[in-house]
């Protein structure tokens, strides 16, 4: 709107100053010059609008966070900057102890033991969002995972993965406006997100897909 008003003002001022018919030898000459300045005004408007769009896009891009910009709380209560995992591919998963998909803990651990040396890590986030299937405390969850599935991959403190109290990381994971790639809806426990070694959002994978699926394994190995 500002650019439009500015150009209209510019054009009117220009027309008043230059387009006096007495300044031209003929009406035809006047019309040629008038058309010329109309074209200039249009080109200027297009140019200024393109600059504005570029600036808005640049600002929006600058505001988008990386996976590494977040700090989460580990299951033992300590802060864990996700920048700790720079250079690694990451599988982020919301987990629960009383879910039909809970046996996926074993496959997540198997995946982590096979690939989680230098280039890959699994990060589990307990959440009680779906039918209250993760009612335990952080201490109880840690004990459950260790005793029943021998979990050694990093486990975080319990959070919310949707709704008004959604954790900032999951806000980023599920909104294109935040991650710059895609929106995603978490339908249940053990929903998986893939993050590349540069902290960029790669994929959203539903609960029914095994952690040992071809899709995930090929992504890790590529």
What topology does this entry show?
Blueprint (H helix, E strand, L loop, with lengths): L1 H17 L8 H37 L7 E3 L5 E3 L7 E7 L8 H12 L4 E7 L11 H12 L18 H7 L1 H4 L12 E4 L5 E5 L8 H8 L1
Parallel strand pairs: 3-4
Antiparallel strand pairs: 1-2, 3-5, 5-6
Describe the overall structure.
The protein has 222 residues and is of the alpha+beta class. The protein has two domains: 2-63; 67-221, Glutaredoxin (3-Layer(aba) Sandwich), CATH 3.40.30.10. The protein contains seven helices and six strands; from the N terminus they run H-H-E-E-E-H-E-H-H-H-E-E-H. It has helices at residues 2-18, 27-63, 104-115, 138-149, 168-174, 176-179, 214-221; strands at 71-73, 79-81, 89-95, 120-126, 192-195, 201-205. The strands form two sheets. Strands 4-3-5-6 form a four-stranded mixed beta sheet, covered by helices on one side. Strands 1-2 form a two-stranded antiparallel ribbon. The protein is elongated, with a radius of gyration of 28 Å. The model is unreliable at 2-11 and 56-62 (pLDDT under 50). Residues 61-222 form the Thioredoxin domain.
What are the key terms here?
single chain; four-stranded mixed beta sheet; 7 helices; 2 domains; 222 residues; Glutaredoxin; 6 strands; alpha+beta
Low-pLDDT residue spans: 2-11, 56-62
Radius of gyration: 28 Å
Order of helices and strands: HHEEEHEHHHEEH
Biggest sheet strand line-up: 4-3-5-6
Sheet with the most strands, sense and barrel status:
4 strands, mixed
Principal-axes geometry comes out as elongated
Secondary structure class reads alpha+beta
Mean pLDDT: 86
What is the CATH C-level name of the largest domain? Alpha Beta
CATH superfamily of the largest domain: Glutaredoxin
Distance between the termini: 49 Å
CATH structural fold name of the largest domain: Glutaredoxin
- Compute the number of structural domains: 2
| Annotation, overall tally of beta strands | 6
Count of helices? 7
Query: What's the architecture of the largest domain in CATH terms?
Result: 3-Layer(aba) Sandwich
């Amino acid at each position: 709107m500002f650019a439009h008003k500015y150009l209209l003002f510019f054009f009117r001022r220009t027309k008043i100053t230059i387009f006096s018919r007495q300044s031209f030898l003929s009406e035809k000459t006047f019309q040629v010059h008038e058309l010329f300045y109309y074209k200039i005004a249009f080109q200027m408007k297009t140019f200024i609008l393109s600059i504005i769009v570029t600036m808005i896009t640049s600002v929006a891009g600058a505001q988008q966070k990386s996976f590494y910009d977040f700090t989460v709380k580990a299951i033992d209560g300590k802060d864990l900057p996700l920048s700790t995992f720079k250079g690694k591919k990451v599988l982020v998963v919301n987990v629960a102890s009383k879910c039909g998909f809970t046996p996926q803990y074993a496959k997540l651990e198997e995946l982590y033991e096979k690939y989680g040396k230098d280039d890959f890590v699994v990060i589990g986030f307990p959440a009680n969002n779906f039918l209250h299937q993760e009612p335990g405390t952080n201490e109880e969850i840690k004990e459950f995972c260790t005793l029943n599935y021998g979990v050694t991959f990093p486990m975080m403190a319990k959070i919310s993965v949707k709704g008004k109290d959604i954790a900032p990381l999951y806000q980023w994971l599920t909104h294109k406006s935040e991650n710059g790639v895609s929106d995603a809806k978490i339908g249940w426990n053990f929903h998986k997100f893939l993050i590349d070694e540069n902290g960029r959002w790669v994929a959203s994978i539903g609960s029914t897909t095994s952690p040992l699926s071809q899709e995930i394994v090929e992504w890790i190995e590529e």
